[in-house]
Specification:
- By secondary structure, the protein is an alpha/beta fold.
- The protein folds into two domains: 290 residues, Rossmann fold (3-Layer(aba) Sandwich); 70 residues, Alpha-Beta Plaits (2-Layer Sandwich), CATH 3.30.70.20.
- It is built from twelve helices and 16 strands.
- The strands form five sheets. It has an eight-stranded mixed β-sheet, with helices on both faces. It has a two-stranded antiparallel ribbon with strand order 5-6. A two-stranded antiparallel ribbon has the order 8-9.
- A hairpin with a 3-residue loop joins β8 and β9.
- α1 packs parallel to α2 and α9 packs across α12.
- The longest helix has 20 residues.
- It binds iron/sulfur cluster (2 copies).
- One iron/sulfur cluster binds next to α8.
């Protein structure tokens, strides 16, 4: 079995879950990946189980197919994810599990439990020394034998593209690890565009945003209402301010601002940094583990699954492509991007996130020896 093989089966828009399940099972059997699982192995199926306002693209029915195949191979499967940084019911294990159940990830439907990998509120973590300092990953990773990443391919506001590498790197790091990976992301408010609606303040998980009255442009500094932050009709002119010392760069504020009034300072270099750190986390999480990666290039949206606004009804950028499987996270992401862009006739991730070079994550993960961008596609 060559590591750089990427197995692919096409799917169509609105294909029935039953048909997708059959294709998934057939593709998995063709890969022979079941052989990497040994009797009694703890097998983590890592995925995003959706948000309150956004149902997951990877249906629990698809997951059940994988669970049954893992059991056939003698493994002990469970579905897993970690607590998130941003304001969400996914920020602690109790509410996260309640949401998972609501979105269909019940024991009954999956045939296995759901376990949150970094504990109740992210306290279960493991710190690993690397050549660049330390990385902090979910504590449960230590005891795993096999990791299967089920990944929904999407665009991403910080990394341009989010696939298997991101699912592993960010999705199996602890809260400390997520903070570390985001540490160079510095958002700033474009004051003239800010409408003072306070939405960003409501969403900021670090209490790092204050919406304060500001002097109106017509102020003469003469004790007039404008000097007190009042416009000529006595209404307060408010703007958001980010307290840099408190901000940990989660990106939530610029995702939710309805007026595009928040930008990331030096977005390009912040994105490069986050992607390079992701590569390092990916390497450390996968070290000494057997693993394989299943990408769902379906319902491909500009934003990732964490952005659940607007009822989650974000319009896909392109028709569905299909399902890809590989032992190599770099190969599976590269092949997914290539197939998506080929079908679109353009680079849709670059078009959606023009300031970001999303290929950094692929190049850096390859440089660190985790995989290769030179894959062979098996239809
Ligand atoms: S930055 Fe955006 S979300 Fe925040 S107060 Fe201003 S307009 Fe509203
Ligand atoms: S990026 Fe900073 S300011 Fe914006 S929501 Fe996250 S912690 Fe708050």
């Amino acid at each position: 079995m060559k590591d750089n093989l990427v197995y692919f089966t096409a799917t169509e828009n609105n294909e029935s879950p039953k048909s997708v399940c059959l294709k998934l099972k057939s593709l998995f059997k063709k890969t022979g990946f079941g052989k990497i699982i040994k009797k009694g192995d703890f097998v983590a199926i890592k995925m995003h189980m959706g948000e309150e306002k956004k149902k997951p693209t990877i249906s629990p029915l698809f997951v059940r197919v994988i669970v049954d195949l893992v059991k056939e191979s003698g493994g002990r499967p469970f579905v897993t994810d970690t607590n998130v940084l941003y304001e969400s019911v996914r920020e602690n294990a109790v509410d996260h599990l309640g949401l998972a159940e609501k979105n269909g990830f019940s024991y009954q439907l999956l045939g296995c439990p759901v376990i949150i990998a970094d504990g109740l509120v992210g306290e279960n973590q493991l710190t690993i020394k690397t050549e660049n300092g330390y990385v902090s990953i979910a504590g449960l990773v230590k005891r795993l034998d096999v990791i299967i990443a089920l990944t929904h391919c999407t665009g991403h506001l910080l990394t341009g593209y989010g696939g298997a590498i991101k699912n592993i790197a960010m999705g199996l790091s602890s809260r400390g690890g997520k903070l570390d990976q985001h540490s160079d992301v510095k958002p700033e408010v474009i004051t003239q565009d800010c409408q003072g609606c306070r939405i960003c303040e409501t969403y900021c998980p670090a209490d790092a945003i204050e919406t304060r009255p500001v002097r109106s442009p017509s102020s003469k500094g003469d004790g007039s209402p404008a000097k007190a932050g009042l416009t000529s009709n006595g209404v307060k002119d408010k703007k958001a301010f980010i307290i840099t010392a408190k901000c940990y760069g989660c990106g939530e504020c610029f995702a939710v601002c309805p007026h595009n009034a928040i930008k990331v300072d030096k977005w390009h270099s912040a994105s490069d940094s986050i992607q390079k750190k992701m590569a390092l986390y990916c390497r450390e999480i996968l070290r000494d583990k057997r693993s394989y990666f299943i990408n769902f290039a379906m319902n491909i949206t500009k934003n990732c699954d964490c952005i659940g606004e607007g009822g989650g009804a974000e319009k896909p950028l392109i028709d569905d492509i299909g399902i890809l499987m590989s032992l190599d996270p770099v190969a599976v992401d590269t092949a997914s991007i290539d197939l998506i862009n080929k079908k679109a006739g353009k680079d849709i991730f670059k078009t959606a996130w023009q300031e970001i070079d999303y290929t950094i994550q692929l190049m850096e993960t390859e440089r660190l020896g985790v995989g290769t961008r030179r894959y062979d596609l098996v239809h």
